[in-house]
Amino acid sequence: MKTFKSRKLYQFTGKNIALISRRQLLPNGLWKKVEMVAHPGAVCIAPFLNSGKIVLIRQYRPAPAAYLYELPAGTLDEREGPLTCARRELREETGYTAKYWTKKGRIFPLPAYSDEEIIIYKATGLRLEQGQREEDEIIETRPMTVAQVRRLFSRGKIIDSKTICALAFCGVFG
To answer: Domain with 74 in it: what CATH number?
Structure first.
């Protein structure tokens, strides 16, 4: 997990991000002023109930002021590894735990201006337990068939980039 390093010049530091302005040496020898969002990292989980059914969530997101279809995901806590975070987030957001975990890939969703890295996991062997959502999370759990997920995507109803990438990594789109 990355932590915010003190050698960077922070313009703003929040709970999960820091806005940074610094000079950076590029591979071609040019020094450039870089403005970016520093992020501690995140995970995205594709939880499969079986080979034909996946658990999505419908979550309210304040930035676009809309409900989005997504896979469970979350930001790494300080000194927390990605798999530990994935286990925590799956249970918090869906109420499910998983017996088997497979790392499927990683993405940089906004590489032009953020160092956020998202690790993608596939979770299987699910068992429904008690969820523990945070108070500001407005989430509905939506188990769906793979065919339903594909239809939502083809109709432009799944627009969250980490979800689209995770579904692709897991072979949902064929």
So the answer is: 3.90.79.10
